[in-house]
Amino acid sequence: QVHVVESGGGSVQAGGSLKVSCVVSGRIIFSGCGMGWYRQAPGKERELVSYGGRDGTITYADSVNGRFAISRDNAKNTLYLQMNSLNTADTGVYYCAADCPRWPLVWGPGIQVTVSS
User: Fold this and answer.
1) Strand (E) or helix (H) holding 83
2) How many Å apart are CA 97 and CA 5, to the nearest integer?
3) For 30-59, how does the pLDDT look when each residue is reduced to its tens digit (9 = 90+)?
4) CB atoms < 10 A from the CB of 75, how many?
5) Tens-place pLDDT, residues 68-87
6) Which residues share a beta bridge with 2?
7) How far apart are CA 92 and CA 109, in angstroms?
8) The CA-based dihedral angle spanning residues 73, 24, 69, 117, taken in that order and rounded to the nearest 10 degrees
9) Do residues 108 and 6 make contact, with C-beta atoms less than 8 angstroms apart?
C-alpha cells in the first residue's frame, strides 16, 4: 500500500507564509511519482494548487503562481509547498496526492490552512 500524510498546516495572518509537507510511504520509488497539492475551500470544489510531474515539469494554478513554490526531497520521500503572501482566499483544506506507477492515485487526509485578515 501507499500512504500519504500531510503536515504543517495552521493559522496565519494575511501576508504571511506557511510551509506544508507531505510524506509518502510504501512500496514506491518516490522520484518516479508525480506529486500534487490540491485544496478545497468551504463550499467549493477541490482544485489543483500545484503539480510536479515525474519528468520534472511543474504546474501552478493561476491564483498561486508567483506566491507558492512546490519542491521535493526524493531522499526523504517528501513533497513541500512553500506558501507566501497568503490571503484569505487561500484558506482551505490542503491535500497531497501521489501518482505513482502501478498504483492508483493516493490522497492524504488533508490539513487545514486558515488565513485571517
Assistant:
1) strand 78-83
2) 9
3) 999 999 999 999 999 999 999 999 888 999
4) 8
5) 999 999 999 999 999 999 99
6) 26
7) 13
8) -140
9) yes
